[in-house]
Structures are given as C-alpha cells and as structure tokens.
C-alpha cells in the first residue's frame, strides 16, 4: 500500500484560489475582486465577483470612473462579497461563523452585509485602501461585531 500525499495545499490556500479564480470573471478593467465563503466544515457555501447585477446587460453600463454619477461604474457594480452572499441559495444562518476569502479587503457597505449574515472571519489578499475613511469605517464595523480578519499571502 502506498503512502498518501502530504504536500497538499491548505484550506486557506484552496479557498483563496477559488476567490482569485472568481475575480477573473470580473469585467472591471481596473479592479477585479473575488470572494469565496466557506463554512466551518470546509465546505464552499458561495462565490462572487464584482460586476453588474445579472439582470443588466453589462455592455450598456459604464466601466470607468467619472465625475458624472450616471457614467461612473460605482453606481452599477455589485461587490464580490455582496454577490457571494446574494448568490447563496441556502439559509443565511449557514453563514454564521463562516470565513470569507476575498482578494480585496471589504468596503464599509460589504462589511455591514458580512456582519448582518454572521461571518466570523475575513481573510484577504490586499488592503490597498488601508487608512482611507471607508476602510476605517469598515474595520470599525468588523471590529465591533467581533469578526476577525487577517491578511494572507498567496504565491500565484
């Protein structure tokens, strides 16, 4: 009988690689974000990426930044974390204590959503907005709800 393989990737790496793969679906030319929610039993609950709502034709909406809110992508794009929560078809109670793996630290709007569904931990690759007002609000929300967060390094 042969020995089993021991050089397998960790659960963290596995779920973050799923988040990275999801980010590759984003049509945003500047920031592609992916998210993967895994429960405490190492099961993937849901995946999401930043993009327009599925009911919209994303060819008809802007993908750039503009002073004119009607022509600015931010008014039309749903963030990866929100999409991951919205894509889940089970009971939101299943997310209690779950971990979300994201390629970019959540904004304050997504932090509220994650707190609302009971996410227990945020693991992220990048915190490029660290120290901004939005980022400080996000971290205050997450800290106040007892959600832990930690960065992760991933060799691609």
Question: Your description of this structure?
Answer:
- With 156 residues, the protein is of the alpha/beta class.
- Helix content is 28%, strand content 17%.
- The protein is built from four helices and five strands, in the order H-E-E-H-E-H-E-H-E.
- The protein has helices spanning 11-23, 80-87, 108-117, 133-144; strands spanning 34-38, 44-49, 99-104, 121-126, 148-151.
- Strands 2-1-3-4-5 form a five-stranded mixed sheet.
- A hairpin with a 5-residue loop joins strand 1 (34-38) and strand 2.
- The longest helix is centred in the N-terminal third of the chain and has 13 residues, at 11-23.
Topology:
Layout: H1 11-23, E1 34-38, E2 44-49, H2 80-87, E3 99-104, H3 108-117, E4 121-126, H4 133-144, E5 148-151
Parallel strand pairs: 3-4, 4-5
Antiparallel strand pairs: 1-2, 1-3
Helix pairs in contact: 3-4
InterPro entries: APOBEC/CMP_deaminase_Zn-bd, CMP_dCMP_dom, Cytidine_deaminase-like, dCMP_deaminase, dCMP_deaminase-rel, Deoxycytidylate_deaminase_dom
Domain CMP/dCMP-type deaminase: 10-143
Family: Belongs to the cytidine and deoxycytidylate deaminase family.
């Amino acid at each position: 009988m042969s020995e089993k393989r021991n050089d397998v990737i960790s659960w963290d790496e596995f779920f973050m690689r799923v988040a990275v793969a999801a980010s590759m679906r984003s049509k945003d030319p500047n920031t592609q974000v992916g998210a993967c929610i895994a429960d405490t039993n190492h099961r993937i609950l849901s995946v999401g990426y930043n993009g327009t709502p599925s009911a919209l034709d994303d060819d008809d909406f802007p993908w750039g930044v503009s002073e004119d809110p009607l022509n600015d992508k931010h008014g039309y794009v749903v963030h990866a974390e929100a999409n991951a929560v919205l894509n889940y078809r089970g009971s939101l109670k299943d997310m209690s204590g779950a971990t979300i793996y994201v390629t970019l630290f959540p904004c304050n709007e997504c932090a509220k959503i994650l707190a609302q569904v009971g996410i227990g931990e945020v693991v992220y690759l990048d915190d490029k907005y660290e120290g901004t007002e939005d980022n400080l609000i996000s971290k205050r929300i997450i800290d106040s709800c007892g959600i832990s967060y930690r960065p992760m390094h991933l060799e691609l």
